[in-house]
Amino acid sequence: MIKKLLLIGLILGFALLGKAWYDTMRDPVVHRLTLNSDALDPGTSPVTVALLADIHVAGPDMPPSRLARIVEQVNRLEPDLVAIAGDLVSEKRTATKAYSAEEIVAPLGKLTATYGVAMVPGNHDHWFDWPGLSQQLAQHQQITVLANDAAQFGPLVIGGVDDDFTGRADMEKTVAKMQGLGGVRIMLTHSPDVFPSVPVEIELVLAGHTHCGQIAYPWGGSPATMSDFGELYACGVVEQHGKTLITSGGPGTSLLPIRLFTQPEIWLIEIRPPQS
Q1: Which one of 54, 101, 199, 239 is CB 3.0 to 4.6 Å from 132, fit for a cystine?
Q2: Considering the entire predicted model, what is its pTM?
Q3: Is the dihedral of CA 264, 60, 206, 151 positive or negative?
Q4: DSSP readout, 196-213?
């Protein structure tokens, strides 16, 4: 009887490990959302934004070669803008290999989008080597880093706050930088916890950081969300006070190089003019 129970335990253990590795290494799932915006003139073409968050380049699960494949997947979506919500790197102790800033950034230089790429830093970017990452990012003209800053991308106004988790976010400064720019107003942030402080005139907030729990319960929810608001902003779409928040689980991992009952993901948001 004991041997039988041990055998069952071993089988279940290997099945769980197999499930975890599949959840970790599978191709990102593409989630889609359509929003209407009065900031687009009626009759104009929709605008698409691909949200990529928490890439966390490190071995064994996210070598630069895997990121290159994810970049190809994003490019096949033909977005008008790619928004990267921070954490390009992971310096986790469980990593089997660390990569240089140049190796981490190089695949992102292959991203193609009509209006380019907007990025904000995350906590791991600051902890790793933000000056080194910034230097590499600056070599790719299509990538614009926004750290408490804003820029115009075609019909989109992107405000990018620096990392809130490490106390670098300046919402007031970022919103001020958005003034005078015209178009659909979007706030890009690493942590979703800034959502309540985003002014109501900003229609869309794009975030990451939480990994949707990374290791979750099979029935939903997770032991840790890395958000002060618990499960409220931890994953997916939230609509409050006329604003929409999308928190992406991203494709990478932190602390442990595995996912379980969550999946790598990319969001594709289509923004349409008002319905006639």
Answers
A1: 101
A2: 0.95
A3: negative
A4: GGS-TT--EEEE-SSGGG
